[in-house]
């Protein structure tokens, strides 16, 4: 029996592999604009999706069942993915599951509130019995916005930045300024153990970039992640505690007990502890906040889901697609 292909497309990367495996075999990372969140809608360039399916073909993922992960909202994207899966990849059957549901499953959870700080969007999604519940929130402030803040901090210090590669679809096109900012964010930045406004200024610390340039990082290494918690009026960003509190209050009791923190920009030191304390203050009771151990929680959830005879995974056959069309995936 051929294993299902698992395709997890996010706002800044695509992860491809096969069911039953613990890690994706292909990771196209750092792809700003792979998906975009504009005016409360998920937008995409069809050429980018075609590039992802070319990767899937090279991996040997055609002519087998496909399980797709996609943002919780985005009917046009779901229809486009379904069409490519059936017509380009010649899949005999296709399942599509919302990314927050898969992230929860990938961490062994069926009831929780998933807080996903991804590349282009931060989402908060209550999950009850493995299904997406009312109360979903999405904001276009996430890892890429933090990368831009790091980039601005580097520019202010006169750092000479590399040019952006001309086309992410072509391998070996260089290490651009945004990738440098992402690397600095992930290796240098961290959340302070307490609200930054309550702490004394830290001593200056200089960091050497890969090209030998030196940069003073104390001025931004804690301040930039702090925005995830405090919010930003200029960015129309309410902050994680407020988003999570509102989602928890609108959901059932089971999803209220635990918050699952996932996404590449959720891995800052002290972020989960700070969020847990902030939620306790906001809600007047303790809510457990757990950080995902894997960076690829939604992909891993897809790898698990395609093996489960579970109602959360609705598979559509090629015959159903031919009869009813791609609108099957708008539901």
TrEMBL record:
Cleavable signal peptide: none
Gene3D superfamilies: 3.30.420.40, Actin, Chain A, domain 4
Reactions listed under catalytic activity: ATP + H2O = ADP + phosphate + H(+)
Listed SMART domains: ACTIN
InterPro entries, sorted: Actin (IPR004000), ATPase_NBD (IPR043129)
Pfam families per UniProt: Actin
Listed SUPFAM superfamilies: Actin-like ATPase domain
Protein family according to the UniProt entry: Belongs to the actin family.
Name this polypeptide is given: Uncharacterized protein
Organism: Effrenium voratum
